[in-house]
Design a protein that fits this description.
Blueprint lengths: L1 E4 L9 E8 L5 H12 L5 E5 L2 E3 L2 E2 L2 H4 L9 E8 L11 E5 L9
Antiparallel strand pairs: 1-2, 2-6, 3-4, 3-7, 5-6
Length: 106
């Protein structure tokens, strides 16, 4: 997947935006697996920050101000709030796409 992170060194009190673009399915089996996952309420993209799962939301082309493309990539957005109460130091950001074509990104 294509992963964009708004900052690689966020400071406390900042909101970190994670945008993930997932290519369209290449075959009917993958298309069916994605449909079943979405119908069952599961997210296609999972984001974990410092061990805590953060919900990701489908971000449509219209919301992004982009012309809709038939069969184009699906985009997901996650906002991670870094409060002043969080301890400073390195944290792990993990992005997982529930599609066999992709490995987890850390």
């Amino acid at each position: 997947p294509n992963v964009f992170v708004s900052s690689t060194r966020p400071s406390q009190g900042q909101t970190l935006a994670v945008v993930v673009s997932v290519d369209p399915p290449r075959n009917p089996i993958t298309m069916l697996q994605r449909s079943i996952r979405r119908m069952s309420g599961g997210d296609l993209v999972s984001v974990t920050f410092d061990g805590k799962r953060i919900p990701s939301h489908h971000w449509s082309n219209r919301q992004r101000g982009v012309a809709a493309e038939e069969g184009g990539a699906m985009t997901y957005r996650t906002l991670v709030a870094l409060t002043p109460l969080d301890r400073p130091g390195g944290k792990e950001l993990k992005v997982r796409v529930w599609d066999r074509r992709y490995r987890d990104v850390r």
